[in-house]
Amino acid sequence: MLDVLFVIGGLTFLIVGGNWLLKAAVALSLKLSIPKIVIGMTVVSFATSAPELIVSIKAALDGSPDLALGNVVGSNIANLGLVLGVTVILGSIDVKKSFYTTDWPVMMVASLLFVAFIYFDGQLQQYEGIIMVIFLFLFLVYLLRFQKTAVVDEVPEDDVPMPLYKTVLLLGLGGVALWGGSELLIQGAKNLATSLGVTERVIGVTVVSVGTSIPELAASIIAVLKKEKAISVGNLIGSNIFNLLAVLGITSTITPIRVMDDGLLTNDIFWMLGISFLVLPLVFFPKGLRLGWRDGLILLASYSTFVYFTLA
């Protein structure tokens, strides 16, 4: 029972911390007059990927590599299958050209790069982590210099600039909440896996990954309700890129990550590639350059199938 409370408490801290970071990120975008899609794919993505980063580094250093890997792979599947699915059911999203010329291809390249690194030897080496971080840096440089609006966005009326001291305070509090939440979540998840007789990978790709995807879900739903659709799509695509290149890149640079449960290589990574690819045809069919409620149902059904086969 205590382990369940640890998991719930840890997730609560992660959600609160992620939300504080998100508010600070949007305030920064207003202060710097940066286009929302760029903020969505950089600052907001990094803020909502912070739980994955903290949890994965902590898990890897604590000798639980499958929690680190399962958390990221499961989060990427949850971001598109669960979060994007729910988001477009709540409100359709019109997509512009740069979504399929830049954002989606970079996500697929990042996914394939990760799979290529880990599939053959079952581990992410330090030099592979460095390559992933360099790729992320080059992508960010390109994004900040050349990216145009990728999503049709309605200008919100309630954007109110935040004082600098409050932005800095939220960043600090968010970071502390994320650290405390990760400590509780890792401890609870490891104990839970042991008591239920399942592997850390299964806990990682289900409970932990959904928990660390909750900031993305909250950010995306709030963005759609506030008509800030550019942040919602950019946040999810950017989050998946950050999860792979920043979270696993930085984690494996600090300490190599070895796969302990082969289910990650025979099941999870292929679901991640499949759902990532699925988003592209959904953008074009049945209505061109739009994600609607039917697409949301397909994504949710895909995610439900993944969870069923993982737990079965």
Helix and strand layout, with pairings?
Blueprint: H1 2-32, H2 36-61, H3 65-90, E1 93-94, H4 97-119, E2 123-124, H5 126-146, H6 164-196, H7 200-225, H8 229-254, E3 257-258, H9 263-284, E4 290-291, H10 293-311
Antiparallel strand pairs: 1-4, 2-3
Helix pairs in contact: 1-2, 1-6, 1-7, 2-3, 2-6, 2-7, 2-8, 3-7, 3-8, 3-9, 3-10, 4-5, 4-8, 4-9, 5-8, 6-7, 7-8, 9-10
The shape is globular
Give the low-confidence spans.
Answer: 149-158
The percent range for strand residues is: under 5%
Overall mean pLDDT: 82
- Supply the number of helical segments: 10
Give the end-to-end Cα distance, rounded to a whole number of Å: 23 Å
Write down the secondary-structure element order. HHHEHEHHHHEHEH
β-strand number = 4
Largest sheet descriptor: 2 strands, antiparallel
Q: What is the helix fraction of residues, given as a range?
A: over 70%
With strands numbered from the N-terminus, the spatial order across the biggest sheet is 1-4
Cα-atom radius of gyration: 18 Å
SSE class: mainly alpha
Give an overview in words.
There is one protein chain. With 312 residues, the chain is mainly α. The strands form two sheets. It has a two-stranded antiparallel sheet with strand order 1-4. A two-stranded antiparallel sheet has the order 2-3. The chain is globular, with a radius of gyration of 18 Å. The protein has helices at residues 2-32, 36-61, 65-90, 97-119, 126-146, 164-196, 200-225, 229-254, 263-284, 293-311, and strands at residues 93-94, 123-124, 257-258, 290-291.
